[in-house]
Amino acid sequence: MRERGASTVAVVVAAAAAGLLAAAFFTNWMVLDVHTTGPDAVNLKLPIPLPLIRTVAAFVPNDSLPPIDIPPEVKENRESILRALRELRDAPDATMVRVRSDDANVVIEKKGKSLIVSVKAPDATVHCQVPLDGIVEALEKWDWKTCNPQLALRVLAAAKHGPLVTVDSEDARVAIKMW
Amino acid sequence: MRKILTLSAAFVLMAGALLAAEPTRWLNVHVESKEDHANVDVRVPMGMVLAVLDAVKTDELEAGKIVLHTEDADIDWPKLLQAIKDAPDAQFVTVSSDDADVKVRKEAGTIFVDVNQKTDDNAQVQVQLPASLIDAIMIDQDNRLDLKTLLTSLSSQTMGDLVKVTASDANVRVWID
């Protein structure tokens, strides 16, 4: 006669493992990838689950968060700033800025809900993705007084999967990807 | 048959809504800097420009109003603008000085302002505005032009070149599409 207890335990363990795998699969991960050359070369690849950072940040007491010195004229124009960002977020896709010079080429494009910034200079290239949805949502919820790490995490969570920031120079390569 | 009619009606309503939606108007700026060998192209939605205008505060620009340094001229702006609006095509103003030649003319429903600078970088500035936009040109008693009202009207009415500047160190073109 089959031992029902044993098969039940196996099913529970399998379900728990499947649940953890699914959670890991659907969780936002930020992958930090750093490579430098030279005598103190660094090679680092660090995957960071955003929910873990959010959980840790949630335990930080609000009154321990440092105040931010925002210029009064910026606070006064909070609504105008938010309105401008919403217009940008809702505008059709377009190349918004293109600079071509002997020193560098800069392109700022609007694609979907992101602003893509690319800078190519003789000694470095920089590429970053700015999630406008996340920025607008974070700024709407922010009190414009204190440093709030949860808002930065909200912006990161809104970023599209793929490269967030990539910096390539002669002696270093830094990449932050959302996965 | 009823299904086809319902689907057709829904399609017509959607198409109507899409056609009725206002297209985005864009403010474009092209700058060629001859000194730096640099080209800059900026294209931003007019809605964003108008939102940012509220937030800009400088000596010359505040709350969407820009200072026109015409204090010495004692101009009755409403009267002048109405006269330009009502007048037929003609050259209204020609001013020649040691610094610059300025011509203001109206042609085919458009007002042209041409400035030829004789000093510094010898810039040539051409500004053109539809004459119908004169009602949107509001200058208060402190000689401040309501740029926000003007740009709002521009974005709903006109497309095409607004400003062209040709100078020894740079060329600039501003237009709306």
Fold and architecture overview:
The complex is a heterodimer of chains A (179) and B (177). In chain A, 39% of the residues lie in helices and 34% in strands. Chain A has 179 residues and is an alpha+beta fold. In chain A, a hairpin with a 2-residue loop joins β5 (114-121) and β6. The termini of chain A are far apart. The mean pLDDT of chain A is 81. By secondary structure, chain B is α+β, with helices and mostly antiparallel strands. In chain B, the strands form two sheets. Chain B has an eight-stranded antiparallel sheet. Chain B is globular and about 40 Å long. Chain B starts with a helix and ends with a strand. Chain A binds chain B through residues 73, 77, 80-81, 83-84, 87-88, 91-92, 94-102, and chain B through 24, 26, 36-45, 47-48, 51-52, 54-55, 57. β3 of chain A pairs antiparallel with β2 of chain B, so a sheet runs across the interface.
What's the SSE blueprint?
The complex is a heterodimer of chains A (179) and B (177).
Chain A: H1 4-26, E1 29-36, E2 43-49, H2 50-58, H3 72-76, H4 78-90, E3 94-100, E4 105-111, E5 114-121, E6 124-131, H5 132-141, H6 149-158, E7 162-169, E8 172-178
Antiparallel strand pairs in A: 1-2, 1-8, 3-4, 4-5, 5-6, 6-7, 7-8
Chain B: H1 2-20, E1 26-33, E2 38-45, H2 46-55, E3 61-62, E4 65-67, H3 77-86, E5 90-96, E6 100-107, E7 110-117, E8 124-130, E9 144-146, H4 147-157, E10 160-166, E11 170-176
Antiparallel strand pairs in B: 1-2, 1-11, 3-4, 4-9, 5-6, 6-7, 7-8, 8-10, 10-11
